[in-house]
Amino acid sequence: MASLDQTQKPTTDYLSAIRDGALAGRTESQFVSDYLKGIAKCIDDRHDYYRSYGPYWPAIKSLLIENDLYDATGEVDEDVLSTYCYDEDSLTVVAASLYQNMRLEDGLFYSAYHQLPVTDDEAYEYYSYDLEQESDRS
């Protein structure tokens, strides 16, 4: 049986190429800031929005906390965070966005269940659950 560490993720080269095209004249810092502000608004509007990020949610949540865009206690799953983040915040944001778009295309945007691909094994089943998001934060 596969572990989370064995799941396949986009390479940094692939993500860098996409990021470079998405910057549109902004710095990487501006790009990340703009993206996180948009996420913060969506999270405020709909608490289950976080599920669309699957295993990238802990990294996104951590970035929201670091940028003072998340107003709850901010408990983060460090094990998942250590696997589903990149050395550059902009690459983490791009990877999370690509994953979210895939979920939208598959009609699974708000589903908490995720099938993460692994090499030479059955998909890794990941359940996205954030107690803080699932409870009433108002």
Would you mind describing this structure in some detail?
With 138 residues, this protein is mostly helical. It has one domain (4-133). The protein has 6 helices and 2 strands. The protein has helices at 12-22, 28-45, 57-66, 78-83, 89-105, 131-134, and strands at 113-116, 124-127. The chain has a two-stranded antiparallel sheet with strand order 1-2. Strand 1 and strand 2 (124-127) form a beta hairpin. It is globular and about 40 Å long. The N and C termini lie far apart (40 Å). The model has no long low-confidence stretch (mean pLDDT 92).
Note the beta-strand portion: 5-15%
The percent of residues in helical segments reads: 40-55%
Q: Would you report the number of β strands? A: 2
Element pattern in H and E: HHHHHEEH
The value of Rg in angstroms is 15 Å
Unreliable spans? none
Count the domains.
1
Topology overview:
Layout: H1 12-22, H2 28-45, H3 57-66, H4 78-83, H5 89-105, E1 113-116, E2 124-127, H6 131-134
Antiparallel strand pairs: 1-2
Summarize the structure.
This protein is mainly alpha-helical.
Descriptive tags:
Peptide-binding protein, mainly alpha, 48% helix, 138 residues, two-stranded antiparallel ribbon
